[in-house]
Specification:
single chain; 98 residues; mainly alpha
């Protein structure tokens, strides 16, 4: 992998603009931080009953154990993640308010 060798890593840097553009083409954007609202929004948009079992978040992640990103690219990835997440939150809010 390019991070542990002397390779060019520029092709691995996140293209946040492209990711945000693609976000607009998704039929649905949910947020794990608003899991229950996301499940309700999904059913409001696409129909079907909202089941109690869907409101439980069974696959929570403990991010403290995830070793990615490595220190040398963490600032760029962290900024990209924050920008993308902000875009996802904006999209969710727009859909929620409709």
């Amino acid at each position: 992998d390019c991070l542990s060798h002397a390779y060019d890593c520029t092709h691995m840097m996140p293209d946040t603009r492209k990711a945000l553009d693609r976000l607009g083409g998704f039929a649905f954007v949910g947020l794990t931080t608003r899991w229950r609202d996301s499940m309700c929004l999904f059913h409001a948009m696409f129909g079907g009953p909202c089941l109690a079992v869907e409101l439980e978040q069974y696959h929570q992640t403990n991010y403290r154990r995830v070793p990615w990103p490595p220190e040398d690219v963490s600032i760029e990835i962290d900024l990209a993640t924050k920008l993308f997440y902000s875009g996802a939150v904006e999209r969710f809010q727009r859909d929620w308010e409709m």
